Amino acid sequence: FSFRLFPLREHGMNWRARPLTCQEIQAFRKSKEVMDRFIRAYKLMLGFYGINLVNEETGELERAENWRERFENLNRFSHNNLRITRILKCLGEMGYEDYQVHLVKFFLTEILIEETLPNVKRSALDYFLFTVRSKEKRRELVHYAWQHFKPQSSFVWGPRDKLQKYR
């Protein structure tokens, strides 16, 4: 068998890696060792993308010192977007839903406000946003994206009437 760093309950690009079962996910989540390794792997990948995990309790993130160079890599190579989507889904499977929210919001901020990751925009809006398990948090993130999207009239990821009324 081939195993993945961020396993899911669905098939990925590696046809030899089998999808996780619900029982395996529960066993992983109960193992301190497995979860510690999972967080180490998450931090490693964040570092590769130019991001630091500031707070392990909350999942809060910030740019790493080498962010410019790493963001250039993210902008140049779109295959990273598939990996980020996979990481986001796996965070949800492993019970790190707050981490999902922080990672998606980090990307939305860099894309829509800081304008540092223009080539990640489609993936963030089409895929990253919709990996967030919490319906309420996902709505908040869609609203956040809508608030900062230009032009707002071209935003297609949520119904305009609901976005305008959202509180």
Please outline what is shown here.
GO terms for molecular function: opioid growth factor receptor activity. By secondary structure, the chain is mainly alpha-helical. It has helices spanning 22-30, 32-49, 67-76, 79-93, 97-113, 121-126, 135-148, 160-165; strands at 51-53, 61-63.
Description:
The protein is mostly helical. The chain has one domain. The protein has eight helices and two strands; from the N terminus they run ααββαααααα. The chain has helices at residues 22-30, 32-49, 67-76, 79-93, 97-113, 121-126, 135-148, 160-165, and strands at residues 51-53, 61-63. It has a two-stranded antiparallel ribbon. The radius of gyration is 16 Å and the shape is globular. The protein starts with 21 loop residues before the first helix and ends with a helix.
